Amino acid sequence: MSGDGQNLVTEDVTVVEGDVATISCRVKNSDDSVIQLLNPNRQTIYFRDFRPLKDSRFQLVNFSNSELRVSLTNVSISDEGRYFCQLYTDPPQEIYTTITVLVPPRNLVIDIQKEIAVEGEEIELNCTAMASRPATTIRWFKGNKELTGKSEVEQWSDMYTVTSQLLLKVGREDDGVPVICLVDHPAVKDLQTQRYLEVMYKPQVRVSQNYPVQGLTREGEPLELTCAAFGKPQPTDMRWLRVDDEMPQHVVVSGSNLLISNLNKTDNGTYRCEASNAVGKSHADYMLFVYDTTATTEPAVHGFTQLPNSAEELDYGDLSDSRAGEEGAIRSVDHAVVGGVVAVVVFAMLCLLIILGRYFARHKGTYFTHEAKGADDAADADTAIINAEGGQNNSEEKKEYFI
After folding, report:
1. 128 C-beta neighbours (distance < 10 Å), count
2. Residue 388 and residue 397: Cα distance in Å, rounded?
3. What is the pTM of this model?
4. pLDDT tens digits for 384-397?
5. Cα torsion 239, 241, 246, 247: sign
6. Cα 67 from chain centroid?
7. Cα–Cα separations (whole angstroms), residue 134 to 17, 151, 164
8. Parallel/antiparallel/unpaired status of strands 93-102 and 13-16
């Protein structure tokens, strides 16, 4: 508001196109002076409670010595501008109020460069908010996550058209996720539009062991595997093969199932299920190790894992229930057992050698003393003592001579 009159009061008005604007001209200290309201072209809208302007959109809301309040319905852009309140005093007083008209976007559209994308591609999306006033702000969301776009503003007369560009690299996890274009504008709340992403991706392959259920694969027993593949489009080609070797003749493949009715150790190896669609090919491996019929316990390391086709596939988390790495685990267990047995045998042999060495060191043969000589021919013990050299009789024969 503006003017030199100290006795007049009014406020600026902001209104959305099509709504109602209310203009109030108030007198702080009424002295019964005449109040009138004029439009931007200086045409009198109301003089006191009389309306000389032939525009039925203007209606008197309140009239008194201290206020003239007028409403304007169905406001349009052409109604925007300065409206004057006048008070006929000496000298006359005047003050103006400004009507500002807000225009919400007339249309909000998302355009996708490619309706169907392939995983790993970068696609371009454009959201356009047309004919708004003032220029709108566009925000992007993928699901609940806000993204950053690049906006351009074009002005047409008193209107603004805003286009925001979003570059988005899509993966298989984006398939079916909504991309939302949301508008921030003072004339409108919760104005948004969305498009659902459609992303094609190569198969995800998963191998599961139906029989034996998490048990040992023993000689003579059956093995049944099932391969499941999911992709977009749905895989149409699925096959089983044996890695680095021919498939045994007794293996029966029926669609996604592989059956070995009578396992033997020649079946050991890696069995691969491959699936493909229009996007690409993927596989999952199952490592088979056939145990002896006497095997009763699980190996130290036993489980299922996935062997990815490449490092790129690790990003997409292809998981499988395939038994992998089991053969290597069994070999490591066998090596540990053999090493332990060898260590025990070597230790036992060392202990035996030490004992024998000590025994032979103390007993190197049979020795006879001089006293025992002749005892072998004696008929009894007394005779043996008499005949033995070194006995009492012989002791007397021992003499020493000195010359």
Report:
1. 18
2. 13
3. 0.65
4. 445 554 444 444 44
5. negative
6. 65
7. 12, 15, 16
8. parallel
